[in-house]
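thread: overnight batch results

M.L. [08:02]
morning all. the overnight job finished for the chain we discussed friday. pasting input first so we're all looking at the same thing
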Amino acid sequence: MFIYPLIAALIIAADQASKYAVRTFMQPGDRIPVIGDWFSMYYVRNTGTAFSMFSGNKFITVALTSVLIIACLVFLIIEARKGSKVLAALITMVFAGGVGNLIDRLTLGYVTDMISCWSFAVFNVADIFVTCGCFLIVFYILFAYKDEEKAASSGAGKHDKTE
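M.L. [08:03]
and the structure it wrote out:
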């Protein structure tokens, strides 16, 4: 179970390092084109949640993030104990992304966002892990988790019979 805290620590470190770099070398509102207008670094201070929902309400954003982090931690422990390595790793991605953004909310009062694609929302490294982790969890549960559970239960049933 040591691998999941390591994965989380690496994700949180990458997220916090990227945010620190942006806060150090850019001013809010600065935009640095990387690939024309399609992809740029755009420093935004987000006081809300996804798509700036609940902007300016620190209590709600901290409370929502904290509840989701705790839920991820509970499911992570359950899945890790069950031996579901893939699902536990995916939950770790969501957990770590949530922690990365919670650190910002608690220490700065806002989340540092800096990645802008097209005219889509501005996001950060933590958001990428939360979004990709959630998408992959849904994909995994729909297409692989059921097969894994069936194999585990049919294998256990064969070994449990002592008659």
